[in-house]
Amino acid sequence: MYGQEQPYQPPLTPGGPGYPGAPPYQGGYQSPYQKPQGGGLGTASLVLGIASIFLLVVCGLGVLTAIAGLVIGIVAFVKDSNRGRAVGGIVLSVLALIIAVVFLTWFYSTVGDCMDLPPGLQQRCVEERLGVQVQSAPQWRS
Fold first, then answer.
1. What does the angle CA 63 – CA 101 – CA 42 come to, to the nearest 5 degrees?
2. Positive or negative, the Cα torsion across 8, 13, 19, 20?
3. CA torsion 35→39→45→49, rounded to 10°?
4. Percent of all residues in the chain with a pLDDT value above 90, rounded to a whole number
């Protein structure tokens, strides 16, 4: 049997003689830095916060989107769903609400007394307090 060629047999030690072997394969890749799933709430909060600032300036509807952005941002923060964007949405939503409260407080303190006047004098009082002159729309004659 010495003259016969033996088929190849792998060495008994995994890395060869004198080398330690690699640890056995345990399965799929598991990263400790996995991306959190469901980051849509945090993103939605940020989008609503940005929209609330814009809508507050443009048409005054920013209060509604700010409230929605604040609620969604708090839910996203508690669920740990994209916390960075959730915090941004919360900050922008609170900022929009603060701006709305400051504006409404200023407006009421400036023209609030005018609302107690008869309807014919209300417009004149508001114009005087705000320092503007509002022209009536032209009347169409048929």
1. 40
2. positive
3. 50
4. 37
